[in-house]
């Protein structure tokens, strides 16, 4: 299938989702928000892969939302002027707020698919990761970057507050004080500093080296029992959002339901015999096409 903003390739149980608009710095046009969840939900729902790598093309990973493609602005009361009591102007303002809210929820859901899917998602970031790009990679399981990579919560520079996922997730990934500084100033966070504070796992000299390294990690993940990997992702996300007591109870219930002795035996035997394990893939989701 052809997508406006992406290409998709699946080999050796690894899905590679690539942003393909380098001439526009891979900015997020309306099709982006429609296609990303469709791609991820198809891969996950039909158990097409055991790991997902998200990368990009050109000098920059993602320039964030393409405001021009959404009608050119965020303004409220467009052209309302002093007509505060005019019924048509008032109705337009009310509809604008409701429409903005609906659009924000749509975009939030589009990125949440990365977090909600059963498969680990690894982001490979070169150059700028700006605005909505930060929202996107914050929803991934792991982040890797090139030496020239940087992150910017750019929304403050255009007079708005980031609303698609940066703050709820970033505050759980890095120290709150740094999130506040980035949000209030819009400054660039370099790849080196991002590694120091734990936002990225590793920094590479260039994109080729980064992709080689990220695919090495993806291959290692793809060689593990898929059900156990799914359980790890589910438990980590749950533990992040709940108390320790709730997390302990949930993992006990999870393993009581999902723990598979045959997969454990195969994993131990494969390690002993120094061979790839022969593991059962995740089942397709009932909602998958």
Descriptive report:
This protein is α/β, with parallel strands linked by helices and 289 residues long. The protein has two domains: 6-73 and 104-222, 2-enoyl-CoA Hydratase, Chain A, domain 1; 226-273, Lyase 2-enoyl-coa Hydratase, Chain  A, domain 2, CATH 1.10.12.10. The chain has helices at residues 30-45, 87-116, 132-138, 166-170, 176-185, 191-196, 207-222, 226-241, 244-258, 261-273, and strands at residues 6-11, 14-19, 51-56, 121-125, 128-130, 142-146, 150-152, 188-190, 202-204. It has a six-stranded mixed beta sheet, with helices on both faces. A three-stranded mixed beta sheet has the order 5-7-8. α1 links the parallel β2 (14-19) and β3. α8 runs antiparallel to α9 (244-258). The protein starts with 5 loop residues before the first strand and ends in a 16-residue tail after the last helix. Mean pLDDT is 92; it is low at 72-83.
Order of strands side by side in the largest beta sheet?
A: 1-2-3-4-6-9
CATH-derived topology of the largest domain? 2-enoyl-CoA Hydratase, Chain A, domain 1
Measured on Cα atoms, how large is the radius of gyration? 21 Å
- For the record, the CATH class of the largest domain is Alpha Beta
Q: Report the β-strand fraction as a percent range.
A: 5-15%
Instruction: List the domain count as a whole number.
Output: 2
Helix segment tally: 10
């Amino acid at each position: 299938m052809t997508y406006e903003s992406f290409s998709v390739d699946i080999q050796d149980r690894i899905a590679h989702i690539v942003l393909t608009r380098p001439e526009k710095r891979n900015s997020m046009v309306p099709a982006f928000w429609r296609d990303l969840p469709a791609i991820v939900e198809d891969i996950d729902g039909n158990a097409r892969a055991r790991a997902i790598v998200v990368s990009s093309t050109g000098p920059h990973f993602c320039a964030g939302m393409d405001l021009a493609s959404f009608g050119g602005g965020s303004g409220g009361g467009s052209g309302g002027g002093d007509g505060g009591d005019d019924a048509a102007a008032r109705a337009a303002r009310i509809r604008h707020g409701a429409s903005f809210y609906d659009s924000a929820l749509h975009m939030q859901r589009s990125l949440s698919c990365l977090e909600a899917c059963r498969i680990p998602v690894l982001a490979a970031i070169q150059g700028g990761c700006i605005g909505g790009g930060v929202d996107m990679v914050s929803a991934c399981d792991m982040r890797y970057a090139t030496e020239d990579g940087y992150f910017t919560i750019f929304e403050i520079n255009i007079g708005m507050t980031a609303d698609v996922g940066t703050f709820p997730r970033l505050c759980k990934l890095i120290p709150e004080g740094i999130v506040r500084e980035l949000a209030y100033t819009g400054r660039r966070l370099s790849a080196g500093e991002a590694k120091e504070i734990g936002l990225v796992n590793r920094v590479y000299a260039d994109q080729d080296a980064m992709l080689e390294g990220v695919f090495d990690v993806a291959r290692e993940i793809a060689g593990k029992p898929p059900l156990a990997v799914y359980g790890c992702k589910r438990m980590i996300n749950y533990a992040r959002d709940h108390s320790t007591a709730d997390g302990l109870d949930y993992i006990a219930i999870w393993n009581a339901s999902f723990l598979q002795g045959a997969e454990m035996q195969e994993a131990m035997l494969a390690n002993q015999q120094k061979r790839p394990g022969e593991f059962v893939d995740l089942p397709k989701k009932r909602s998958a096409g």
